[in-house]
Amino acid sequence: MAVEGIKFTVDVSRINQMIKDLSLTNREARSAIRRGLAAAGGIIRKQAVQNLRSVSGKNGRINYRPMQRFVKFKVYKDLGGVRVDILGGLTRKQSASYRKRGIKDIAYTLKFFDLGTGERYNKTSRKLSKKRYTGRIQASYFFQNAVKSKQTEAQTSLNSLIEKYINRIASKK
Fold this sequence. Notes:
Layout: H1 12-21, H2 26-53, E1 56-57, E2 60-61, E3 72-75, E4 82-85, H3 92-100, H4 108-115, E5 120-122, E6 132-135, H5 142-171
Antiparallel strand pairs: 1-2, 3-4, 5-6
């Protein structure tokens, strides 16, 4: 049930014509396209965070608040698309910033709540004479369900969002 790269299409000729008609600079055009892509990715991210709130663990609902910041989206520098993911690791700079603020990097746990785990046991040690059962996390597929439910909405609104930001930047000139 893994969700791999989903491709959206944009009416490039129409966008280019709008940019040309409104005589936007290259920097303004890139900014408008970046904001439109970010808004479309934000639709899926928002739904994933909303689905994360309803994930239940062993003793009821999980505490989603520290985890929701790790549902990330990134607009590619070449403006070729957006990546929304729960598995993205932190850069050294980001992890150092989190450590300074006292925030633990618990992004890897989102994968367990999304895909689930098998039966888990602690390894034996001097203190433990036999393996101890530590549980199993039931798969909730909160991220896949968010992508499936909001995929068409993000696709249909992508063109209009880009056009909206182009008009907004042009009106500020």
